[in-house]
Design a protein that fits this description.
alpha/beta; 2 domains; 6-stranded parallel beta sheet
Length: about 300
């Protein structure tokens, strides 16, 4: 497939937020390689509007993730894929679900496919792919499909309206939440509360971020400014650009904050492996304990070099 053709390209990335952020460099690489192509993204509803505003895609399709027994939903998805008349697909999700989508295309009109699906024209044959960080794994996958270079994630296009919060200068972002079904990924709220107090003693202003469902958690972290449930992706990027630094668990917003350039300390437990999925950015420090309850607040504070000039 030559770059000069009027190609139709599909990129598949369904989620979650951290994985999407780690795919931004791959999105940029695909856009640069297929500069004249019409590029569509297949993603899930939480990311559709946000990524439609990015410079990488001409349109965004929403995957409702129909179950195997949802025949009407599968047929609707099949029609949407077939109607796209795609010449090539880059499956960056590389899950069992996304790999099955190759079989949804009519046999006579199946596109070239980069991924791990059986029958892919450009399979990722790297035997170590499951032991690599997302960024390295995707870079190697795209190299096998003819794209030689993948840049770091770039969020310069992502803007919000954080000025409306009227935050004081010298604020520090705290992200104490994570997926509700993964409580083992959370540093205890009492530890965040202690950290917030130490930050205030240094003349800094802790700001708690999270979803609306984490407001009760944020109320336990005092003294702090509570912005839970009030920010979108653009706001998070704006807040990251203005923050002194950030501390948070292994959760999607920390990927966004780190990639936006904020010096970040990210806390990992045995529940996830930073070698595979740690946030990447200008300055990222990973602290890991098998049980985050064993992580001392002073160790976290010492991991914040950006506080040296506070």
């Amino acid at each position: 497939m030559s770059d000069g053709d009027a190609q139709r390209v599909l990129v598949i990335k369904l989620g979650a937020l951290g994985n999407v952020v780690l795919s931004l460099g791959a999105f940029a690489a695909i856009r640069a390689h297929h500069a004249k192509a019409h590029i569509s993204l297949l993603t899930t509803a939480p990311f559709a509007g946000w990524l439609a505003a990015s410079p990488y895609f001409d349109d965004v399709l929403i995957d409702r993730r129909p179950s195997l027994w949802d025949l009407p939903g599968l047929l609707k998805l099949r029609r949407m894929l077939a109607d796209g008349r795609f010449d090539r697909v880059y499956d960056l999700q590389t899950s069992g679900r996304s790999s099955r989508y190759l079989r949804l295309f009519p046999v006579a009109a199946r596109p070239e496919w980069s991924g791990i699906a059986l029958g892919a024209s450009h399979p990722d044959r790297n035997p170590k792919r499951n032991t690599l960080h997302d960024l390295e794994r995707q870079e190697i996958q795209l190299q096998q499909a003819g794209i030689p270079h993948v840049p770091p994630p770039d969020l310069s296009w992502c803007r919000g309206n954080a000025a409306r919060f009227g935050l004081p200068t010298g604020y520090v972002l705290l992200v104490p939440g994570s997926s509700a079904h993964r409580p083992e990924k959370r540093w205890p709220a009492a530890a965040y509360r202690c950290l917030a107090g130490l930050l205030v003693e240094q003349g800094l202003h802790p700001v708690v971020l999270g979803s609306a469902g984490e407001q009760a958690l944020a109320r336990d972290i005092q003294p702090a400014i509570n912005l839970t449930g009030q920010t979108d992706f653009g706001d998070l990027c704006d807040l990251a650009r203005g923050a002194r630094c950030a501390v948070g668990n292994d959760t999607g917003p920390m990927h966004l904050i780190a990639a936006a350039g904020c010096p970040s300390v990210v806390l990992f437990s045995r529940a996830s492996d930073p070698a595979l999925c740690a946030p990447r950015g200008r300055s990222v420090t990973v602290l890991r304990r098998l049980d985050l309850a064993d992580l001392d607040v002073r160790n976290v504070l010492a991991g914040l070099p950006a506080l040296a000039d506070a």
